[in-house]
Specification:
alpha/beta; 6-stranded mixed beta sheet; 8 helices; Purple Acid Phosphatase, chain A, domain 2
């Protein structure tokens, strides 16, 4: 009986170009085939797409292999969650209607096998980055989304492709770890621990696989990205691990 829970983030499909994105999509689908026999739940924790916007009758084309694989997994009874990231915060109800995926807008707190998890994409948390936090409120505002939706898809998606072309994925900027004291998501996790206990904090967004002990009973795991690392988290009912996928 399948019991493993998997966590992955920051596929950034669509960037930096069609060919590279297609190769990455094939690797992701290969990974999903690899984990499927032992997977009970799958948490896709944001920035699955480098840009996504759902018009009333139009969605961005492409990524059909990933969508088909997720539909197959959902049809087998695997529960799938999709967290809104800073690149795909305009996901609406398309994946819920077509596949049955549950959309998560912010944090999700769950308990599995006696372990308590705090899950979030990671954007807008912790100290600093006031400019992005301000923009996040604007982009998540229903009026802003409506204003974008009245643009014809040809224009709206053209603008989106321009944004993607200037992202850190397109420039392939690799993040570096400086210190635990400088790790803003670890700082945020410790602030939450002062209020209540969590066994695990799991984030994406950082683009750097990290596994940090916050105290004797709590850990912060950043599940990295799929441009350079192909990293993911897996909980087997007893322990949480950070792992890396290599195509067989």
């Amino acid at each position: 009986m399948a019991k493993n829970i998997y966590f992955a983030s920051d596929f950034h499909l669509g960037s930096p170009n069609y060919n590279e994105s297609r190769k990455r999509e094939e690797r992701i689908v290969s990974w999903l085939n690899f984990i499927e026999p032992n997977c009970s739940e799958l948490f896709l924790m944001g920035d699955v797409f480098d840009f996504w916007f759902e018009y009333k009758t139009v969605v961005p084309k492409g990524f059909i292999r990933l969508q088909g694989k997720l539909a197959q997994m959902a049809d087998r009874g695997i529960k799938i969650y999709f967290f809104k990231g800073n690149h795909d915060m305009w996901v609406n109800d398309y994946f819920t209607k077509e596949i049955g995926i549950e959309i998560i807008s912010d944090e999700l707190i769950i308990e599995r096998n006696g372990k308590k998890f705090y899950l979030h994409h990671g954007d807008g948390l912790g100290p600093g980055d006031a400019k992005y936090k301000f923009l996040r409120k604007i982009f998540r505002n229903p009026f802003c989304q409506w204003a974008f939706s009245i643009l014809p898809p040809r224009i709206g998606l053209s603008i989106a492709n321009g944004w993607s072309g200037s992202s850190r994925v397109a420039s392939n900027k690799k993040e570096v770890f400086i210190s635990e004291e400088s790790e803003w998501l670890a700082i945020y996790a410790k602030e939450q621990l002062a209020k209540q206990h969590f066994d695990y904090f799991i984030f994406g967004h950082r683009h750097l696989p990290l596994d940090i002990n916050l105290n004797e009973n709590s850990r912060y795991l950043n599940i990295g990205e799929w441009i350079n690392y192909s990293s993911y988290g897996v909980f087997d009912g007893e322990d949480l691990r950070l792992e890396y996928y290599s195509n067989p």
